[in-house]
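Problem 12. The chain below contains 369 residues. Write out its predicted structure in token notation.
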Amino acid sequence: MDIKSAFDGTRFTFQNNDSLIEGIYSGVPNHIYHQIPAINHSTIKPAFITLAHYFEEVNNKTKDKNTKPKSIGSLFHCMSLTPTNTYDDFFAYPEALYYPNDIHTTSQLNHALMLKGRSQSGNKQDLITALLEADPQAQIFDNRLKECLISNIGCDAFNAALELAGGKFASILSQLTKPELAKFHLKQAMSQSDWDLAETMATKFLSKAANCELLSNGYPELTLIAFDKHRNIWVKCKIDYLKTNLVPVDLKSTENASPSRFSYSAKEYFYDTQEAFYGYVASLLGLELLPMKFAAAESFAPYVSQIYTLPDVVRLDAKNLVQRTLNQIIDAERSGVITGYCANEMVLPFKRRANPRAASQPHSTESYF
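Solution.
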């Protein structure tokens, strides 16, 4: 298995001008991976619902998809797979509950100024400036947060975020994931409580011998880029961990890692087609991946984790679904015909009621389906 470094010190090695170069690469940052012009599993996943969902997704790339659970999961992944990158990719910002003795409110600022024999009118920032002039050692929470942000994202990004927030410092955190700030390649901001949660998850996960063995004898965060000459498309995937025996490993943060609940998550979020798509990309590079191992880690105490594989019949169905869906996407792009749930009118699949007379009972608790 020929693994190349994604960066040679001056440029990214997987791209020559506007052309991609097939291969297996290590060290591709997430924000760079998402910019690689190739189809990945997340790209085609909406097509498993309908082609209409797929084309809506690819034509609407400005949506802010960064959610809190996803952020915690991303940090958990980093801490578990590439811990040395944690402080390069993430930072924790302070929360008020951790600093109860700081000055937080306008009334507290006015009171502190009064104790210093000062009187100041204006907005909250004016009061903060006046108090710091009177007492440079004053512990003001807004100032603590400001210093943290500037030290982690830089003055230019801070000022740009503040401008997006309309000059309202209280709204600055919500601006950090906006597309307008993408050019700064910011580290991902995490609240201190979310940071602590992800750290606890990673610590508990790695304390289990089976999980440590799973993440040994292999390579973390490998990016595969390949060209499908039959479909004339570039495809890519990023494997959490690839063992030397070609067993791919995928970490999943979840609320419930029990077999019944994780099975539901696997179906709901298309983990089966994820495995199939990764295998498809790898096959284009001459690799035959073994069945993927999914390591599910709970995000609540006692932070139970469990390793799963999918049934063979599910894996085969998913493999066929991925290939069929790729063909349907290409056909739709060529023809311009985008279907919804069904191409034609159809009879609705309708499960009969257990008690046909229930329809005449206005307050019946009988289920329709």
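Discussion. Residues 89 and 137 are 31 Å apart (CA to CA). Students who got a different answer should revisit the alignment rule from Section 12.3.
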